[in-house]
Write a structure and sequence with these properties.
The protein is of the alpha+beta class. The chain has a 4-stranded antiparallel sheet. It has 9 helices and 7 strands, in the order E-E-H-E-H-H-E-E-H-E-E-H-H-H-H-H.
């Protein structure tokens, strides 16, 4: 939902806003993953849509006409003030498609994005659904809500190998879930993989643990805590992740 939002300093900006039950699969856990995933992407230097928390007041909701067009939004929020996830809008842009070509000056950023999605186990940037924008020759990254799914559905992921374990990387396999950038960057430049590893190693405990403070209490904290534990474990095993990534990318 594209909204006009007002910042604390009174300035205005456009943001795409999401909240629980905007569609059937959209739960608070999705918003948690989106928030932490976006913050991590930003800290790794990726051109991610800037995340923000949007307070949707009961007063504002009362101004929305109660009709068929607005029924789902009103039902999702109810009549109470709530905190939604927002991502500041990019414009102008076009959507990346699987037949686009990664140019030489885009290869580092493309490799970083592939490695980010691999590390966070984001299945939602495949050939079948790229979730990637482009401005000129610059990527614009959106939709991190399917990162960290093992931290959401722990039972289904029980026994599934992590991306720093042998056999834990599968988004290079041909099919609709193959990462949309894989064929363009394979074989990758070795230094791009090493640089990503170093960038992730440089993110401190304090920064990672601070992601928890950005998650509103009303969304719940259990999934967020599992994500923090996962990211700390990933950083301790990031050298193994580099080895596994090299086997797939080189």
């Amino acid at each position: 939902m594209l909204c006009r939002c007002e910042a604390a300093d009174g300035s205005e900006f456009d943001a795409y806003v999401k909240y629980r039950h905007f569609h059937n699969d959209l739960l608070f856990d999705h918003l948690v993953c989106e928030t932490i995933g976006s913050l991590l992407a930003s800290d790794l230097g990726l051109p991610v849509a800037r995340p923000c928390l949007v307070t949707v007041s009961a007063e504002f909701l009362s101004t929305i006409p109660n009709n068929e067009d607005n029924a789902e939004i009103l039902e999702a929020f109810g009549d109470r003030t709530s905190i939604a996830f927002g991502s500041v809008a990019f414009e102008p842009f076009r959507r990346w498609t699987s037949d686009n070509i990664v140019h030489r000056n885009q290869r580092r950023q493309a490799t970083y994005l592939y490695l980010f999605d691999t590390l966070t186990e984001n299945s939602d940037r495949g050939i079948g659904n790229p979730n990637l924008l482009i401005q000129g020759h610059n990527f614009r990254v959106i939709d991190q809500g399917h990162c960290f799914q093992r931290c959401v559905d722990t039972d289904s992921w029980d026994g599934v190998r992590k991306p720093w374990e042998r056999g834990g990387i599968n988004n290079h396999i041909p099919g609709t879930l193959q990462h949309v950038l894989y064929e363009n960057i394979h074989p990758a430049e070795p230094e791009h993989i090493t640089d990503f590893t170093m960038a992730y190693e440089a993110i401190t405990d304090g920064v990672i643990e601070g992601y928890l403070d950005t998650v509103p209490i009303e969304w719940g904290q259990d999934t967020a805590c599992r994500i923090i534990d996962y990211l700390l474990e990933a950083r301790s095993d990031v050298q193994s992740f580099e080895v596994m990534s090299r086997e797939v990318l080189l």
